[in-house]
């Protein structure tokens, strides 16, 4: 989804997040994710200016100190970026893909069911449309973030087709954007 993202050309609006929107985002993040109050204060501090960047394709970014901390697509609530996920790995549920799927995910491909059910993969339990961190066999940090197209039970039973829609991955445009200095 963010494979060809370029912050210099794809941002259509950029401005400060309103206080009422800020409170709503914090409440939603704390309700949906496993983020405690202390971590939330580090990620979205009350005393700092939070920037909201609206991009093409219905993508919104929350930027703190010129670094994207959270992103939202049309189909998902605000989810942590990979940079945040690497610092706080337990914010999202995760799945693990086998070694063969790594190169495809890094290139921006969706995660296929077979990559989640083969030896070396760990599927776990999740519902349809849930946002998950994608880890790889033998790697410490997440390589991507995806939205479940099917529940874990459906993936186990069907075992073909797309299991997770890739939202954000290592090497995409958002990962390469080092700062958002506007």
TrEMBL record:
Signal peptide feature range: none
* Record-given protein name: Malignant T-cell-amplified sequence 1
Q: Which CDD domains would you find in this protein's record?
A: PUA_MCTS-1-like
Q: Which residues form the PUA domain?
A: 93-171
Compartmental location: Cytoplasm
Which PROSITE patterns does the annotation name?
PUA
For this UniProt record, the keywords arranged alphabetically read as follows: Cytoplasm
What PANTHER family has UniProt attached to this entry? Answer: MALIGNANT T-CELL-AMPLIFIED SEQUENCE 1, MCT-1 PROTEIN
Q: Which NCBIfam families match?
A: unchar_dom_2
Spell out the SMART domains in the cross-references: PUA
């Amino acid at each position: 989804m963010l494979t060809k993202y370029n912050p210099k050309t794809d941002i259509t609006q950029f401005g400060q997040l309103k206080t009422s929107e800020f409170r709503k985002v914090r409440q939603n993040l704390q309700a949906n994710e496993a983020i405690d109050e202390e971590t939330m204060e580090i990620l979205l501090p009350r005393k700092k200016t939070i920037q909201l960047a609206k991009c093409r394709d219905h993508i919104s970014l929350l930027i703190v100190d010129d670094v994207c901390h959270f992103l939202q697509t049309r189909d998902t609530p605000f989810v942590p970026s990979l940079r945040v996920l690497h610092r706080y790995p337990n914010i999202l549920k995760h799945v693990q893909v086998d070694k063969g799927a790594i190169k495809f995910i890094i290139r921006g491909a969706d995660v296929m069911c077979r990559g989640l059910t083969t030896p070396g993969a760990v599927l776990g339990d999740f519902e349809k449309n849930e946002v998950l961190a994608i880890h790889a066999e033998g790697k410490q940090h997440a390589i991507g973030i995806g939205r479940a197209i099917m529940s874990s039970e459906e993936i186990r039973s069907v075992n073909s087709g797309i299991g997770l829609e890739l939202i954000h991955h290592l090497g995409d445009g958002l990962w390469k954007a080092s700062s958002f200095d506007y």
